[in-house]
């Protein structure tokens, strides 16, 4: 290439690399200082050899020269483009962009400038995007420009923006839908809570009356009525107590799920507390001739937790152990301190039917009884272990199980020595 080429066409390495017909990866650079006239600039045949889209513009945007590549890109005959306004081939929104581009070079005397324009292609009757890289040649008062077709890049960017906007709208729509569903669930839960509160009053109150009256009749008439009548009174009392326990279990589960159980942390004296728990279940053990024992394997006298909830947990576990332990078996409550001295462990052991290891995952599901054939011989809804597990979690503890089919089970309640309320 001659060093006296009468124009300057500069591209960045990135722009040249992106052009499919580029001959070289180096910038096309010549000296504009050697150009002596406008005529020399516009008539040099070297323009046609350039593998780029090249044109020169006047201050008013008039096309003073271009090569065949540029004419082909625009879709017009080369002769019809010479000395016409470049503005004629722009989409309206690009008028201001080109005006600013020309002013920056001619008025503000910037040596080089770039802009993006939307141009109408004649033969396809469509608009496409180009990047205009220009250099100001002061001594001929022209700008030499290179057009780079960036239509695919712009279209890809617009497509990405379309899908981004679409996804954003979809997220907003789905979020609003989720909020509506959550609101409906809240309303449903409120209706359920109201129903359970009403059921608590409407069912528990008459049940308590039945229990009190049947108990009184049993005590007062035990010497008057015959054995069969006494047995009937006892059945009424036991059935009423069983029904009350079921209702209380359902209500407890509902309160846990609604996060309406509040903790009452107090000092619990371990030995006395456990003796009370066992005393309330002695009659169940005596019915089946079971041995019910307490073992204290530590010197700790007391710790802090919610005594009411802990009593429920141990009662559920002990009742479950007594239910599934055969006659003359043994159920024991063992209390010990963890090796780190940070937790209290309450172990409920039995010599009952045991549990298969593959059934462990089903143990703490509500209304679930894994030994369905065996469970039909016993009363219950399958809530005891589920409630024990949920209440243990409320006390920031853990409930673990070890068992082997036919060899009994051990449920361990592991609680922190001091329970802090968040």
Summarize the topology.
Blueprint: H1 13-18, H2 38-43, E1 53-57, E2 63-66, H3 68-74, H4 78-81, H5 95-106, E3 112-121, E4 126-137, E5 142-149, H6 151-221, H7 227-257, E6 265-269, H8 270-279, H9 282-287, E7 291-296, E8 302-306, H10 307-323, E9 330-337, E10 343-350, H11 372-375, H12 384-394, E11 398-403, E12 409-416
Parallel strand pairs: 7-9
Antiparallel strand pairs: 1-2, 1-5, 3-4, 4-5, 6-8, 9-10, 10-12, 11-12
Question: Would you kindly provide a written description of the structure presented here, covering whatever features stand out?
Answer:
The chain is an alpha+beta fold and 422 residues long. The protein folds into three domains: 137 residues, Beta-Lactamase; 101 residues; 152 residues, Heat Shock Protein 90 (2-Layer Sandwich). 44% of the residues lie in helices and 20% in strands. It has a five-stranded antiparallel β-sheet, sandwiched between helices. It has a five-stranded mixed β-sheet with strand order 7-9-10-12-11. Strand 4 and strand 5 form a beta hairpin. Helix 8 packs across helix 10 and helix 10 packs antiparallel against helix 12. The longest helix is centred in the middle third of the chain and has 71 residues. The N terminus is likely disordered.
